[in-house]
Amino acid sequence: MRRRGAPAPHRHAASAPRYGRIGVLAVAVFVCAVALLGGTGVLPSISADSEETVARDLTGTSANALVLDSAASEPPAPTASKQPKVKATTEAAKAAGNATSATSAESDRVEPDASTDESLPADSGQGYRVVFSEDRQRVWLVGADGTVERTYPVSGSIYDNLDPGTYQVYSRSEQAYAFDGSGSMKYFVRFTQGNNAAIGFHDVPLDNQGNLVQRLDQLGTPLSHGCIRQEREDAVALWEFAPIGTTVVVV
Q1: Nearest-CA neighbor of 188 among 207, 173, 171, 206?
Q2: Cα-to-chain-centroid distance, residue 151
Q3: Which of 11, 87, 176, 215 could form an S-S bond across to 188 if both were Cys, CB 3.0 to 4.6 Å?
Q4: Is residue 85 classed as helix, strand or coil in its secondary structure?
Q5: With contact defined as beta carbons under 8 Å apart, do 105 and 115 qualify?
């Protein structure tokens, strides 16, 4: 009987090392280490674009291919709600709008024109009289019972040449001329004397070319050189209201 020899030992095929996977894992560890050190301040922070460039330079593969499945499956980190910021911004915008509106309202505000106040000044005398307010640039024709029969804006002197007080009409001229020959006026009712000429009421003068020396819409503003200028219709009314001896009160 033939003796069977001992079986030959079983040889396993030598396993080849998986260098590809090891290399990819090493690069991934390296990138994570760089990112960690950059985040803690040990190394300069590397942007996402720079990080991908480093990975591509080392492996020839985009860094997007090195993301682990576990990391990809993690939910994104919650982002802070932007509602408070939007609300704050909205409130700030409203506040700015209110400030702008207030500023706008402030810039659009018109100071009241004193000449539009038609109320008879206090302490302006009693009885039949003519009242002239220098501050308000307005005249009142007041009847004997204290009733205001007419009131209107005028243009008094630009100079401080008329003191408050009580006067009387002493002279009247239906046609008159400026003391310096610069023009003429009508319905001149004089009640006091200035440095160079009489002071009184008359219509808006005409220059030597026949033009009004001021616009009628400027009445209510001091523009004369001594007298009180009136619109023609008002000058006629005062002329008829104030004969010689009529009381004139300046306030």
Answers
A1: 173
A2: 37
A3: 176
A4: helix
A5: no
The per-residue pLDDT for range 15-68, each reduced to its tens digit, is 555 555 666 566 666 655 555 545 544 444 444 444 333 333 333 433 333 333
189 closest CA partner among 140, 244, 231, 134: 244
Q: Residue 187's closest CA among 235, 234, 228?
A: 235
Residue type, 122: A
The two tokens of residue 192 are 């006091």
For 201, counting Cβ atoms within 10 Å of its Cβ (0-12 exposed, 13-18 middle, 19+ buried), the class is buried
Burial class (CB in 10 A: 0-12, 13-18, 19+), 46: middle
Sign of CA dihedral 61, 64, 69, 70: positive
Q: State the DSSP H helix or E strand holding residue 107, giving kind and residue range, or none if neither.
A: helix 83-108
Sheet containing 148-153: which strands, arranged edge to edge?
Answer: 148-153, 138-142, 129-133, 247-250, 165-168
Provide the H-helix boundaries in 109-159.
none
- Name beta bridge partners: 23: none
- Encode pLDDT of 99-150 as tens digits: 444 333 333 433 445 557 899 999 999 999 999 999 999 999 999 999 999 9
